[in-house]
Each structure stands twice: as C-alpha cells, then as structure tokens.
Amino acid sequence: MSLQFVVDGLLTGSMIGLGAIGVTLTYSILRFSNFAHGDFMAWGTYATLAVVSAIGATVGKVAPIAPLSFGWPLIVALVVGMAFTALLALLLDKVLFSRLRSQGQAIIVVMASFGASMALRSLLEFTFTSRPTYFSRAIQIAMPVGFGIRITSDQIALLLLTAVLVLAVHLLMTRTQTGRSMQALSQNAALARIVGIDVASVVRVTWVIGGALACVAGVMIGILVQIRPFMGFDMLLPMFAAAILGGIGSIPGAVLGGLIIGLAEAGAVQLIGAEWRAAVSFIILMAVLFVRPIGLFGVRER
Amino acid sequence: MSEIVLDVRDLEAGYEPGVPIVRGASITVAKGEIVVVLGPNGAGKSSFIKAIAGLVPITGGTVFLDGKDITAAPAHTMVRLGLAFVPQTENIFPLMSVEDNLRVACGILERREIPARIEEMYAAFPDLVRQRRTAAGNLSGGQRQMLAVARALIVHPKVLVLDEPSAGLSPKFVSMVFEMLAGIRKSGVTVLLVEQNAKAALAIGDRAYVLVEGKDRHEGIASELWNDPVVAELYLGQRPRKSGTGGGA
C-alpha cells in the first residue's frame, strides 16, 4: 500500500474540517443543522473565481507566485470571496433563518436550510452552468518527499493555510471575549443574555466565521479538484460526519473528525476501491459513536 | 429612608397576552438594603423578578433603576444599566472554567480592570480560587451559587437580584448560601431577593414584601415579619397555623 493516501487524506480532511467548523458552530450556537452550508462553499468559490476573472480582465495575465499554480489575484480574490460568503450567510440568516428561529421550531429551520440549499445551488447552475471549471489548467508536477509520497507546492500551501486558520479560530474561541460569548451562548442562551451578551451580534460572528471558512474550503476544492455547482453539496455528508465524529460544538473536534474521515476515505480508495469511500467514513463514524456517543471531543451536558 | 435604587410600580407581566402572572406589584429597594420578596408557591415571585430583569414580557407598570426607566430594556442590556440577575437554576456555564464564567460576564468592564476585578471576586469567594481552572459543571451546588453570585457582582451592579438562591440545595449548602448573603449585606451591595426559605431570608433581610396572586399584599421590617399574623395568614393560606415550618421551604 502506497503512503500517498496520507497526503490525499490530509487534503480532503482539511477541506472537510474547514467546512465542519461552520457546521459545528451553527449547530451548537443556533441549534440547527444548516444544510445550506455546502452551498456557501460553492458560492464562495464561484465568487472567488469571478473576482479572479475580473482581476485578469483588468490587469492582464499575472505570473504565478514561484512554485505555486496561482498568483496574487487568487489570494486577493479569496479574501473578497470570504467576505462575500460571510455576507451571503448573514443575508440568508436575516431574510430566512432568523425569522423562523424566532418561532422556535428547529425542524422548520432545518427544512428551510434544505430549501435554501437547493435554491442556492440551482442559481449557481443557472448562472454558471453545471460544467466544471478551474482556477488554473496548468499542471503541477508533484515532488517526491520520500516514502513513496508525492506532494505539490499548492497542496503544501493549502495544508499550511488550513493549519493557520484552524489555530486562529481555536484561539478566537478560547482566548477572546467574542469566543467566550459564543461558548456561553451554545451552553445556555438565556443565561448568556442575563450576563450581558448581545445574542444577535454573537450570531452574526458565527455566520461570518462559518461563511468565510466555507469559502476557503471551497476554494481549496477548486484549486485541487474542480469547481462545480454541486461541489459543496457533495461535501455535506462528510462535513456533518466530521462535526458529529469530533463532538458537536468542538472546533478541534471538527477538524480532527475531518482529517479522520479524509484519511479513511483516501485509504479506502486504495484498499477496497473508490466506490466504497463514503461507506468507510460512515462505518468509522458509527463505530466511534457506538463507543463514545458524544463524539471525540464532545462533552456531556450536565 | 435613603435614596431609592429600584422602584417598581404596578408591575403587570406574563408569558402570554391576557394571562398575567404578576398583577400590579409594587416594591422599592433603597441603596444598601436587602429586600426580600416572600410568598406562597405560585404567587408569581419568580415571574415578578424575572420581569424586572427583562426575562418575562411586561404588560403594564414601570421599573425605574436609579431614576431611569428600564421597563422595556432587553435582558442583555440590564447589566449595563446596573441590574445583575442570578437565576434560580442553570445559573452557570457548566462547560466553561470557573474563571471563564467570571470573565465572560466582564463585557461591560474596562479591559484593564478585568484581572483585578476577578481577583477581588476570588478574595470574596475563596472557595472558587482553587477551582479556577475547573469546569463549573463540576462544582458542588453551593459553589455553583457562589460562582453565579460572584459573576453577577463582578460588574459592580447597582442592584443584585437573586431568584431563590437556596432552592434545591442540601441543608449544608443552604446555610453556606445565607452566610454568603450576609457577607454581601456587609459589603453594602443593594439586594433584591426572592426566597421560599422565609425564616432564613428574613434573618438577613432589612425589609420584606409578601406577594400573593401576583400582587404585593403586605410589607414590613424583615425582623418583625416572622411573627406577623398577617404574614402567616397570607403566606400559609387562609387559616393561620401554629406550626412554624418556614412555609414550605
């Protein structure tokens, strides 16, 4: 068995993990499963692609940064795309979720997110067609790093970016007043208000973080695989699996869950064939939940 | 009487429109006083102070804090206005450390003031210091109440509002909680306290009100109310009884 699956698995796991952070935050703070989260990924990616094209059309062709397949326009576009996706999430919450949430029935919000997911996806197909597209068609040569593993510069850069973002979110959650407010809200919403936390503003921060990270995950898929309107929706099950596996509400859990599922899927492709990859990740999910129903980093409510 | 801090006039409140639980209750709390609200089960005591804290919709009457109308203020603005509320149950964040429980409540304090303020709370509640890194859910019942009160006091409230701090605690912790309240009284903090445990509450209070069916029916000096026949009648039901059990505490 080639160890290449480790790199592939870590990359897939990073994409899943970044997406799962948003899923786990929405679930623990707003108390619903947001099925539109995958479509935030796709919208973020298309927004980033649109900005890259716009920059290309204004300033002409930009040479890629040394070993990478992309230049500064993609980095600028990613930042714009993250802001755009955050705004999209805020907008969707304002016009749809917050109104339904105030009526207090979680299942209605979940169904609404399912509808929003379909609407967002169809809009993308309508605007950009369902034909796959790419940030760059250049082919990168993967360099051997020993043990039969090959990795491209893009892949290294994206793994580093994931690590930095995950660390940043973790520090935000544990070291800042905003993060403590988010934890407080997820543990006891009524008490959070009593101690002076403005729930509406914490909810906004939650959407901004979730949306921005969804965009990064989508752009990673766009760089390493391809861009399609269904790219995010296809990630939905692995993202939820990762969030549950890691323990709902836990940022490190979501990322670790993503990596486990990514590695399991990549390993499964080699061992038993690509058609079983989803099955393998779900068997792992069920096995973990059988032993530890609250997930790896989950904590029992007391 | 010295300066009035909390002035509640003809308060009406309830969860559903047309079904008031609080039906025209009025109380005042002067600076530095501990005022106790007593009443039989279902008298609306809890709803009454929750309404003051912005947690139960108010349908009539007014609430003034330090002369300022806070009747319609949303719950999350209350600490900024100077009212700190301690709910009866679920009054800590169980998965956060003791220290984070205190820190998360410091949103309205100046950033550089916070560490000193946390140390002051540890000095006032020494039991919490050793547990500062412990998840608050692992604390004992009495320590949880201490943490909840410390968290409310940390923002220098003009009035501290407590909903039955002794409810559901074992006798050992009940006396611990009332010792703590006696300590708060000495520190000069203004307190509004709702209690089932009438005897213990009257022992530490300055004045008390008896709330029956959502209205304030009787008022008096705390130390005198325990033997007041009117209270016995209102509190224990229509017939005054001889057994002084403390009214179902």
Automatic annotation (TrEMBL), chain A:
The chain crosses the membrane at residues 6-28, 40-59, 71-92, 104-124, 156-173, 209-227, 239-264, 276-299. It comes from the Bacteria. It is a multi-pass membrane protein. CDD domains: TM_PBP1_LivH_like. One of its GO terms (molecular function) is L-isoleucine transmembrane transporter activity. Pfam families: BPD_transp_2 (PF02653). InterPro entries: ABC_transp_permease, BCAA_transport_permease. It is found in: Cell membrane. GO terms for biological process: D-alanine transmembrane transport; L-alanine transport; L-isoleucine import across plasma membrane. Keywords: Amino-acid transport, Cell inner membrane, Cell membrane, Membrane, Transmembrane, Transmembrane helix, Transport. GO terms for cellular component: plasma membrane. Belongs to the binding-protein-dependent transport system permease family. LivHM subfamily. PANTHER family: BRANCHED-CHAIN AMINO ACID TRANSPORT SYSTEM PERMEASE PROTEIN LIVH, HIGH-AFFINITY BRANCHED-CHAIN AMINO ACID TRANSPORT SYSTEM PERMEASE PROTEIN LIVH. This is Inner-membrane translocator. It comes from Mesorhizobium ciceri biovar biserrulae (strain HAMBI 2942 / LMG 23838 / WSM1271).
UniProtKB/TrEMBL annotation, chain B:
Residues 6-238 form the ABC transporter domain. GO terms for molecular function: ATP binding; ATP hydrolysis activity; branched-chain amino acid transmembrane transporter activity. Signal peptide: none annotated. InterPro entries: AAA+_ATPase, ABC_transporter-like_ATP-bd, ABC_transporter-like_CS, BCAA_Transport_ATP-bd_LivF, P-loop_NTPase. Belongs to the ABC transporter superfamily. One of its GO terms (biological process) is L-amino acid transport. The keyword Nucleotide-binding applies. This is ABC transporter ATP-binding protein. Keywords: Amino-acid transport, ATP-binding, Nucleotide-binding, Transport.
